[in-house]
User: Fold these one by one.
Assistant:
Number 1:
Amino acid sequence: MARPASMRRSRRVGEALIERSMLGCALLSVVTTAAILAILVRQTGEFFAEVPISAFLFDTQWTPLFADKHFGIWPLLAGTFLTSAIAIAVALPFGLLAAIYLGEFATPRIRGVLKPTLELLAGVPTIVYGYFALVTLTPVLQKFMPELSGFNALAPGIVMGVMIIPMITSLGEDAISAVPGSVREGAYALGAGKLATVFRVVLPTALSGIAAAVVLAVSRAVGETMIVAIAAGQQPRLTLNPQVPVETMTAYIVQVGMGDTPTGTLEYRTIFVVGATLFAITFAANLLSQRWARRFRER
Amino acid sequence: MQTTVDSDACLSPPYRTMEPAQMSNPGVAAKLSVQELSAWHGEKQVLVRVSLDLPEHEISAVIGPSGCGKSTLIRCLNRMHELVPGATHRGSIQLDGEDIYASGVDPVLIRRRVGMVFQKPNPFPTMSIRDNVLAGLRLTGMRPGDLDAVVESALQQAALWSEVKDRLREPGTSLSGGQQQRLCIARALAVEPEVLLLDEPCSALDPIATTRIEDLLGTLRERYTIVIVTHNMQQAARVSQQTAFLLQGELVEFTETDALFTKPKDKRTEDYVTGKFG
Ligand SMILES: Nc1ncnc2c1ncn2[C@@H]1O[C@H](COP(=O)(O)OP(=O)(O)O)[C@@H](O)[C@H]1O
Ligand SMILES: [Mg+2]
């Protein structure tokens, strides 16, 4: 009689232990995020104790590492915006068309081969993409664009776009396949052709899923570091000209983080300020997309 | 593509020797005429040499136990069957005397003339009530002048107008199940088909919504030829002029509804309608 009871107790203790440790794991990620946020906030605060916010927001130059220091964030924002916009401009049409093809037109056999192949593309290390942009794509582009400098926003933007195509395709295809067959049948039964059914019924139904895929792709492009650090030139410049060297926020963080800037200095704190800005942007984008997706679902 | 499977090879011996009766209703013009229709899902034969004439402006019911091929039969009538991967058929179906499976006939055009309502209401989730009604016209590139008139007329015919006329911009999916099914009927009617196929349209609905749809079918009969699949024999008896009884892909009996339920000629029909199986 006593043994089952004690066994039961030990089982209960074991279960509690497992539960606790799982809770611990969940908490760990929360704590890590909180710690990162705390460090960002503290370093940013110390930065703004020395540099007025107006200089950060209204100066048009970013030269914290020079003798004549300027702390205007806009050149880095412009670099990030430019490379990301080029990437999205490349990835969106190709990624979506590929998703539509795989979801609605490809035979199961073709899809079975193509989808994993595309997903392999996502596994290529970004450093390979970066050097491809620098030593292969830029020289090729220079044949058509004599003005293009050796470091520029265009080549890394295009390569980054190629890198995120699989992401848009894969998530977009998931969204398209999730549209119930009854919706397609409804359209066919009305005498709609294949194209009208796909583009005017299936795609609008899959829109919230597709939008989520695009937002993820955008944050991936905004956060991408290695490709732009290698091929875009590391020269903060307030421009939307894709032919000249620029620097993105991420590339700047790498530049300073890998350099010999002593910790605790103002120069060193700039990477936290840039990091906080990056964080704020992606956070806002995610919030917006969530709210948008929710509103869409309610419709 | 439909003739890749040899029909005789799939028939079990009793079927092969049996001469299928041409079942028709003389005196009334046949809107749809089905001749020797066999259909397959992959290797599995689902319909066995079915022949029947569906008279114009009448309601024909198709009954039979689940899996006997009722859906497959009516999906052949508007060429929806061929959309299923691996689906094939043999035999011919004539709409106003023209073979809808003849080479060169565009299935899309057949589906505009032969509309269909499904078992589960399937309004387009991204569209408003109004846009759902207009979907068929828009998706097929037809441009009628007065869209409002089309919407009102289709919803009137589907007996839904008074319930939704003040909320046409709301999503179709915001309606109750019965209203959604009538919206799907309105959507099918808006393209002005000649035939309306309904595949167990009430099986997902409550009794009150079912009654409304049954009443509606009686009025629609004046303008359309209607084929309704139902697993509910009372429903077939209430709404239809003739009834087809399908069993394991074979058309056992097709005759006037009263006759089929009161004095069935075939023993299997009698067993089914008296509830001995099914
Ligand atoms: N998409 C499909 N793929 C394979 N077999 C199918 C498919 N649809 C139906 N069948 C088979 O065809 C037979 C008839 O189905 P169906 O016409 O839907 O019958 P009912 O509508 O009378 O219930 C069933 O045995 C079913 O298993
Ligand atoms: Mg069925």
Number 2:
Amino acid sequence: MQKIDRLLKVIDKVYSGPIVNEKEFDHQNVAAGVARVIEKYQIAFNKEQIIQSDDKLIDRVWEAAIDFLVGCGIYHTDTQRLIKFSRQEIKAALTAAPSDVTIGLGADARQFKTRQVEDPRPPLVGGGPIGTPLSEDQYVPIMQSYFQEPILDIVVPGTLATSYGRQVRARSPLEVIASWQEVDLVQEAAAKADRTGLSVMGVEMAMSDLGHLSAISRGGYRPEDTHIVALISEMKTNNDLLNKAAHSLRQEGVILGFYNPILGGLGGGAEGVAVLILAGWLAMHLIYLPTSVESCPTHPFLSNSTTPDIMRAISVVGAAVSRNSHLLSEFMTSPVSGPGTESLLFECVAMATVVSACGASRALGVRSGVGVVENHCTGLETRFNGEVAHAAAGLSRTQADEIVRQAIEQYKPVMDQKPVGIPFSAAYDTEIMQPTRAWLDTYEQVKGEVINWGLPME
Amino acid sequence: MADVEKLQGELSELLLVEDPDAGLAWAEETLKGDIGVTDFFNLVFTPAMAAVGDKFGRMEIFLPELMDAADRAKRISEEVLQPMMAASDSDQELIRGKIVMASVKGDLHDIGKNMVVLMLRVNGFEVFDMGVDVAPRDILDKAKEVEADIVGLSSLMTTSMPYMKECVELRNGFGLKGNFSVIVGGAPITAEYTAEIGADSFGKNAVEAVERCLALLDRPAIE
Ligand code: B12
């Protein structure tokens, strides 16, 4: 079926599905729905390990997610209607999803491919400030610090703290202007690093459909860039998001669906988070027709993705997708720590190892300081995250789990203190666009340490 | 005198068991004993709810349990305590304050806000949750309509934060500064930003949100 026909069928459902109260959806469809399948499929993770390696359990989680999605549906908040799909429709969407695509252009083009659990072929590496607010004067140098890292296969920009000196307001003309400014500044940084063909994942400033529809057009983001469309946690969408999908489909863009369930939220603990990520990914394949999907499950009090429970869920989801489908998958390292700290690098070790060993297609990072501290991010941590992901490819899950647990021991004691580190201007010598000696020393030292643990980094 | 600590423990457990009516029946039964309804409310009911909230803060229970506990507590309050209070002519307030909560305009992030709403509810506040993407004017109108004591604003993005400032400006502009306080929160919000926009308080997380709202109303923290 043509993509446009599929999208039209989704829109039909948006206007004809059963009307449901949002609170009831949260309670009955999501919370009770997750609890139901967790019991039915007897899903309980092994607390002794981070990386779960019981493949029977992993496959049950996959089945549970499909069962849950069929029952739950996706809630459309504008029409208050439920978009429901059958098992057959889910199967068809899984078959139609791509398993190998080209992103980017020219010398910077990359093949984005499905991987297997414990696959020796490394995942692609994505990186950037990933939405972290950047001041206008620092935007280009910070972005350049990422573009110049050869290990990066795709770049994810930061947001602009202000636009032409003004506080940006979502859904206002300033959103349009700021979205274009993002494109302009990203292109400037890419040109400085001589990597204009690299795929860029945006529009980060598109809080609504406005920014997306304007900045993905002539002179803006290209079809070979990666167009972001989110699913609202938990299991919801709206017309803004469907507008984004409709526009990017017409542009024949590479679409990325992302979905971040919250630990301790409607899905409950790690097991529920795993069910929700899988169901949300399938849901996005049904309604947005994306090229690939991503997740950064979030801790409710620390806002990071590097807590043990969350990584347990990720290990299961990565493996479940690789074992049961050919979907292109991706997870984000979102640490509490920021530039200049050792703990930041240990958080990367833990997450990138989990992601790589469990079969994800791409490892994304690093959203330092959970992405909310202005200018607190640098290219170096992304290099490190990528190097870990490369090195962990081919490790057995048991070997990988040892390394992950050692890394957690290093940062666990400081997690609550949120060591956000130093800003870019203090971590990089901007004259030569290189990390300062001190930041580089920390990087070398942590690298040496994890090599001793058995992670084969170069 | 009844052993209030024991009763507290019993109630906070009953609010989390499978049977949704267990707490209700237990409250009716307990109130037949030697504890008066006012004491029950202050020394058993409120602290028991706070204990449930603390469990969530320590992640011993999750959002669905917290939602259920809040619903059950509401029923105990409405079906058992309020009728008894009315009958006893007590002037005790059963709610600790009225709060209007919203994720501000442009912002769809509501998970944190929903947690704050629930924590406030289990701690005895009456909360009017306006949802997401709410315009400043609508928030203000609601606060006036329900005679709110506090307006709570949630923002997760630098691009929606300006609407918090607009809310405070509108409140002050309409001369309503004495009518209700504004508390703000969300991952990017800091104490400095709170002061800068003239909001009255700020909470880092759902646990702190409760403490700060109690402080705004000059109510003692729950033991
Ligand atoms: C989950 C999430 C989403 C989900 C939201 C789902 C939902 N229903 O809420 C989805 C996927 C939809 C989403 C979309 C987007 N997001 Co988002 N998202 C997040 C993420 C990862 C976690 C937020 C969260 O729920 N945390 C868990 C909850 C429990 O924590 P919390 O909200 O902080 O709440 C706690 C406290 O802050 C406090 N609190 C909260 N509110 C209040 C209120 C009061 C009164 C008080 C006292 C306390 C209080 O108590 C809570 C409980 O402890 C954050 C990253 C982060 N570090 O926060 C990004 C983040 C907020 N998102 C961001 C962005 C950019 C976007 C998008 C624009 C991405 C895009 N290009 O599409 C869109 C915009 C959508 C919109 N218009 O709002 C940026 C914002 C950057 C900036 N410039 O400020 C962040 C920081 C990530 C990043 N760096 O990119 N996102």
Number 3:
Amino acid sequence: MQALVVDDSGAMRRIQQKMLESLGWEVKTATNGEEALVALNGLPDCRLMLADWHMPVMDGLELCRAVRRDGRYARLCIVMVSSDGVIDSVQNALAAGANEFIIKPFTADALVCRIEEAMRG
Amino acid sequence: MASQAATWARLRAFVKNACGVVFTDDQEYLLEARLGPVASDNKYSCVADLVGAIGTMPPDSVIVRAVIDAMTTHETLFFRDAGYWRTLDEEILPKLSAQLNRRRMRIWSAACSNGQEPYSIAMLLEEHWPDLARNTEIIATDVSAPAVERARGGFYNNHEVNRGLASSRLLRHFQQEPGGFRVKQLLRDRIQWSVHNLLSHWPDPYDCDIVMCRNVLIYFSDTDRSTVLHRIEAAARPGGMIGLGCTETSPRKQLVPGWYEKPGYESVQAPAGTLSWGPSRGNVDR
Ligand SMILES: C[S@@+](CC[C@H](N)C(=O)[O-])C[C@H]1O[C@@H](n2cnc3c(N)ncnc32)[C@H](O)[C@@H]1O
């Protein structure tokens, strides 16, 4: 299954890519929301997106909203990644269309939990 | 001064006697790793001095409690093993709640660690079984007094909420605090906490509709394991459900991984001889 990792930090992209690959995902990456939208266009079977909240050009929140406006991505599960572990951020992320929220830094097993929740729908 | 090996042997005997947890020879590294901090917090110059001292201390002293806490593994997470909780929600609660007949429901989480398991019960009930939630007694116990205190506080850091807790549940049942999140008062008030040792003569809860005893038997010897299996079954009412960890073997046939029924409710009778452990309750002198 295909997944997209969207993060402006190269280190974070690599960590998340490794974690997902070890779980059997085929991973593509993008460095901001706009790039992610372009990438998604070419990934009709993508089932999972990990989107960082704070990114230049287009942030994770705007990306979520844009994805949710587009009927083609109805099956895409979104996990919002952010270092602000505050209730308001979680609320805003879910309101923007994210399925789940994970607080940075996180371990692979925590990511597995969040993905399972997101995919459960 | 006692050799490292002698100290390790002494500590192992102490911990086995105190709570049943056994270690292997090759876990000697745990001596320093786990007790080093307890020794320095309590101003002992080395772990050997600490281990030498605990033998004569009362079991409820702060230092003994800290040693037991350090030597037990508290690894846990919210809604550990999703399928186990789905079975509880979709099959067990419908059946058991129909048998209640105006009684209150009683659920015992028998090795609750830092509280994620009993809070998962409370969240699930509040979400899907709100009437039942108000009529359920949740009893949560653990041998480690510091673990019970952490659990009672209901405070979890970012890492702990990242694990197992759906974001919607975080929003619904927790409030923000510096450095993490605290379970809301409503749910905290639904759980009765106490320190309890599955291998001592302390009285157990009784007439429980559900007993969860998950991921703790693995640390015990065979004898202690069967003693505890008898005890938790005795704590359940006939027809009550017992939930072990999903990979643990049970004395009776499991309906789904982890869950089995205590026979005796109406027509449900186990034929004699189905027990794989002896019928008499083993007594442990502690
Ligand atoms: C790995 S945790 C399991 C927590 C939870 N039940 C779960 O499955 O996630 C094991 C717990 O068993 C507790 N424990 C160990 N020996 C015990 C005993 N004799 N009586 C009660 N609890 C005990 C430990 O303190 C620890 O918190």
